[in-house]
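Methods: example folding runs. The two proteins below were folded one after another, and each record is reproduced exactly as written to the output file, sequence line first and structure-token line second.
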Amino acid sequence: MPKESRYDRQVRMFKIEHLLYQCGDAGMEVEHLAKLCDVSVRTTQRDLNSIEASNVFPIWRGHGRCGILIKQYLPPIHFSTSEALNLFMASRLMLGYAQRYDPDIASIFTKLNCVLPSPLKEQVQKTIEWMNTLPKNSQVVHVLGCLAEAWITGHTVHISYQSYPAEEASERDIDIYYIQPVSFGHSAYVIGYCHYMKSIRTFKVERIKTIAILPASYTIPSDFDVNKHLSSAWGIVPDEKVESVRLRILPELVRLMEETVWHPSQTVKRQKDGSAVMTLQVANTWELVTWILGWGEKVEVLEPEWLREEVAETAQKTAEIYEVKRQTR
């Protein structure tokens, strides 16, 4: 099991504070608090000892229970209902992208539960209970915690990274410039300077096997802007070569394409036959090819010619697979 970082412990302290605050004067059993924090009772007892010794916030303990001394406590930050709702929706999107139990996302929901009115409060509680049933990936949680701490403190990290085509992991030192969640693939990516490649590279968090925060520090270049860096990318992988892509959209998809912003450069122009032509200025990557193929026969590549041929070839190979299976039945 990875060694607990200072960041992990700090996150748990915040969670304890908000969990106890929600209980009011009644408090809760120490055993139940430990279960909610996903640690042992002994660890929770140590946390409570630390809170008492440093007077982080006023607590009481007795008969196997603990709680906050409400009259001596300044409550956590409050949000307006609309602010809390937007945070709630953002958290739900994060949960949908992760599809796993993440203590940080759970902590966000727990804090929201302190300020939300009914019926949102009940929905948040149901979400928290449902999250506890999701599969846990302690390795990814540990890696994200270390990445967050290194990024905030400006320290280089040493990672063991296995790229998709590689059979074995390789060692890298990277300076973290940005951490970007991506709905496609339900993943998070690190954008940063790779000391081995001597250039800015993108690393998928789930492919990081080991991580260590180094004493060496760095400063993000003042001219680095992640929005500009990713402006030509369809997904997370940028490319220096930007091309004009034209797609023919069949009538049944036109409204969907018009009401959704797939890329900042897109324009959608309706045609007389009810179809539309979408024009994009993007770097052509596998992410774009996959997106086009996902629409089947309803989206046709008009240009560039090489992209049209690549999509047609992939579609033909796919059709051949199903044709072979159909004939063997």
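Second run, written to the same file directly after the first:
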Amino acid sequence: MNEQNLPLWQTQEWEQFQKALGHKTTRVDQVLLLKLPLFLGMRYGYIPRGPFFPEGKKSDQFTKDLIQYAKKKKFVFVKIDPEAELKPSKKIKAKKSHSSQPGNSLLLDLSLSEADLLKQMKRKGRYNISLAEKKGVLVKRAQNRDEQKKFGSIFSQLLAETTQRDEFSAHGENYYQTMLRELPMSEIFVAFYEGKPLSAAICTFQKGRAIYYYGASSNTHRETMSPYLVQWEAIKEAKKRNCKTYDFLGIAPEDAPKDHHWKGITNFKTKFGGTVVNYPQAQDLIFRPFWYQIYKMLKKIQKLIK
């Protein structure tokens, strides 16, 4: 498959980013697999948004090669977060698993004109974009590495406010700075009001697809609705680059309870319109059943402690 058509998480650039974070990687039939630590020196494999096969390669052959590699490396299991439905393998025990990637997303069709994109938004979405513009919010995209570094620090400061306000955990600043430095398709946008940064977003732009990856906002001047203008500027940038879709990356499932931890961000994202996409659930291919059960038990204990 042409590299440009691959999901972000299967590209060479994403692999280099993962290596820069200290992760070990390999390719099985050109499919990216991360080698991640467990306990007692054991490891598991992770295939993000794959597998995608090169020309002429069949899924049965890939499964055979993956099983051979995983057994050779003594993996406890290999988690696959597929973009498309996978056929269950009869050669190895597979179990539905928790997805590391969002199971539900929202896609904007960027073949629409800017006027039509605004028209298909919810009324409140259009209103908030217009309000931010009238308030004088100014969105800037980092133009060089120095600005990326400066904006990355601003993003981390805003994120600290966001995580405290919305009660979730996030990476440290080094992660986002590494992403901006090592992942060439990543860009950062920051909204300023009266010279002060109010909100920011990190997006990725590939040929054909753009992704809103991370966002953060201040507790002050929330009445300016600056995050809406950040998104609109990122969407317009994606159109300039001839991207076909703009992916909001993660939303709550349609049947999620009212107290779902993604309800707030979902309410924000759905104001931009778009089409809901549901991905298949992750699968764990289990190679060492005893240690896999130990791993699952430790995960349950971890949840109870939290």
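Comment on the second run: The chain has a mean pLDDT of 93.
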